[in-house]
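Can you give me the bound-state structure? Components:
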Amino acid sequence: MQVPVYLDYCSTTPVDETVVQTMLPFFTKQFGNAASSTHAYGWQAAEAVTVAREQLAALIHAEKEELLFTSGATESCNLALRGVAEAYASKGNHIITCATEHKAVLDTCAALSKKGIEITVLPVDKNGLPDLELLQQSIRPTTLLIAMMYANNETGVINPIEQTGAIAKQNGVLFFCDATQAVGKISVNVQTANIDLLAFSAHKLYGPKGCGALYVRRKNPRVVLKEQISGGGHERGLRSGTLNVPGIVGFGKAGAIAAEVMTTEAARMQQLRDRFETAICAATGAIVNGGGPQRLPQVSNLCFPVPNGASLLTALNRVMAVSAGSACTSAQPAPSHVLKAMGLTDAQIKSSVRFSFGRMTTEEELQFAIEQTIRIVQEQMA
Ligand SMILES: *Cc1c(COP(=O)(O)O)cnc(C)c1O
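Here's the bound-state model for the whole set.
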């Protein structure tokens, strides 16, 4: 067992060994540019990209022509939001989103609001869920898009995605879903959920960093985007730039593995997570943030009754890699916007820690994490 034990799989995951092996030839022997359409090196690369596109489209029940490769979910969120706002400018200027979204969505919406796009940010209840009646009431004739994440990266809370998709469809509004934490972990289906645009990322599902995808619906309705990166017309003109072939190949393989192991892995995660929560809550009086509604099986966000949250995190981090909220915002000192939106006080937010489990988490690691967490929290309370 390696200490500190890694329990931060929501921040990133190690690359699966099989994925690494699948990627390696594409750095050296098969190094062709997928856009080189006149020779064998290019054909080989393009074919490998097609395989990956098929593997990932299958994972979300889409067609391969509906997937674009990007540098990650942050870029995919930017392309979806900015691309829709610009392409549909003559139709409207209003976007609805939610207070618990990732900063890739919230910061992009804030940037768009400076360019004349009106943004409605829906509040959430203490469970982290938005009010669908309020969502319905917030729709205006000028509303272009609803942006709602599949599952929250800090609490694991799963949003009412199918209902949101139905509301969007009834009102002729597009639905963009940041599904970065959900894809490969739980079943995601863009057809049954009426999702028009969907973002996800390789490094959250045991693939490499710096590689993401955006699903863009092709029919019922056909979604149009204004490209945000031009030059060369790659990815049907929507995202120019030489494709990251090794990354894409690894992303595809990671997606194929996820499809295979998802059901058994989700059951194992839930079992580990429940044991973890039961033991720790009983021994320390911790409360599960977002523990009420449906949530991802691999995440546990706990609020501890300790006097000093910062010193708790420091002590935990000596033996295990866990974080307070998301890695993406921890560069900023501000307390978690997600827990704040759920009504927690600043003191409660500072005493909250996210534990996230993954495919490489062992029984031994789980037992160690339970014992160490209880010991550390009891020390902090003494
Ligand atoms: C990690 C994450 C992102 C950002 O993904 P990158 O590929 O690292 O840019 C966006 N949204 C959610 C929900 C995430 O968990």
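A couple of observations. The mean pLDDT is 96. The longest helix spans residues 245-284.
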